[in-house]
Amino acid sequence: MAYEIPVTQARAELADLINRVVYGGERVVVTRHGKPLVALVSAADLERLESEPEAVAEAAEEPMISSVSSLRPVDSAPGERRRFGIAAEHRPEHRPE
Question: What are the tens digits of pLDDT across the range 72-84?
Fold first, then answer.
């Protein structure tokens, strides 16, 4: 299973994403404006994909993408909003329990 994450959020969470890939066996797709840019996969996963062509076809058949941002809210690092000129933020709608 792969998680989709915007590049701005991935930048702030790189160490956590690397741990999820290496220790959690996850794949992470980094996006910009909703379009996939790169994928983070473990070195072992990459080696397997490169050495076994049928593994690539098998991986393409898996349902792969869900949203990391739906798992938990993430605040920007201090000063990041000013540094990158971010003028708006996403505020999820309040859902009564």
Answer: 555 555 555 555 5
- CATH number, domain at 16? 3.40.1620.10
Residue type, 38: V
Domains identified in the chain, total number: 1
Dig out the tokens for 77 from the structure. 């690092």
Please report the pLDDT score of residue 51 as a whole number.
85
Do 17 and 41 form a contact (C-beta atoms < 8 A)?
Answer: no
- 3-54 pLDDT tens trace: 899 999 999 999 999 999 999 888 899 999 989 999 999 998 888 888 876 6
Give the domain range for residue 59. Answer: 2-71
DSSP per residue, 19-55: HHHHHH--EEEEEETTEEEEEE--HHHHHHHHH-HHH
In this structure, the dihedral spanned by the alpha carbons of residues 89, 83, 65 and 41, taken in order and rounded to 10 degrees, is -160
